[in-house]
Every structure is written in C-alpha cells, then in structure tokens.
Specification:
The protein is α/β, with parallel strands linked by helices. It has a single domain, classed as 2,3-Dihydroxybiphenyl 1,2-Dioxygenase, domain 1. Strands 1-4-3-2 form a four-stranded mixed beta sheet, covered by helices on one side. A hairpin with a 5-residue loop joins strand 7 and strand 8. The longest helix is centred in the N-terminal third of the chain and has 12 residues.
Length: about 110
C-alpha cells in the first residue's frame, strides 16, 4: 500500500539490464520481471524498484541507497562474488557499513547495527 509522501519505488540506472539482474540476483536474491526489452522491475529488496536503461555511468556522489544486513561480512562476500566493487568499510556510533559499486556504476552501501 502506498503512503502519502513516503518513498514508494526506486529506479537504478542500468547500462546492461541482464548484467544488473545477474548481479543483484546473485548478491541479494532479488527477483525480476521484464517489461519489454527496455525495463526490468525488481522485488525482494524491501522496496519495489526497477532498472532504467542508460548509456552512461551515473555520476558518483548523488543520492545513496543503503541496504541493511544481519551479517555484514557475508554481504560483503556476496557483493564481491557477484562482481561488485567493494569500497571502504567504516564504523560509526551504532554500527558499520561498506559502500559498493554495481556493474552499472551505481554506488550503494550496506550497513549493520553494532
């Protein structure tokens, strides 16, 4: 059910839809529904979303999507094995996180409670 003024859906730029499906399926177990040749919706991420085709890598430093993990080491291993580029791990009061770059160049992060 959609809620007024709440984030309802998110789209990530995708240079190659099949590569994005392979990465997010392997790393996080997300599932996908193709809408023609030019759009893929994803489920299983806690928030519905999709991959929107683009020809260019997105610039770094924009809005950040942050996933939650019960086991940060396991999540980091899954991202690496799926082909993601893992960035620095940082600790902060209450937890820690690491960033990663997906196959299309989107920067996301995964965090866990301390």
């Amino acid at each position: 059910m959609s809620t007024h003024n709440h984030i309802d859906y998110i789209e990530l730029p995708a240079m190659d839809l099949e590569t994005m499906k392979a990465f997010y399926g392997a790393a996080f177990g997300w599932t996908f529904e193709d809408y023609g040749r030019d759009y893929v919706a994803f489920s299983g991420a806690g928030l519905e979303g999709g991959f929107a085709p683009t020809l260019n890598r997105p610039p770094r430093g924009g809005a950040m999507v942050i996933l939650y993990s019960n086991d940060l080491d396991r999540s980091e291993k899954a991202v690496r094995e799926a082909g993601g580029e893992v960035l620095e791990r940082i600790s902060f009061p209450g937890g820690s996180r690491f960033g990663f770059i997906d196959p299309s160049g989107n920067e996301l992060a995964i965090w866990t409670k301390a």
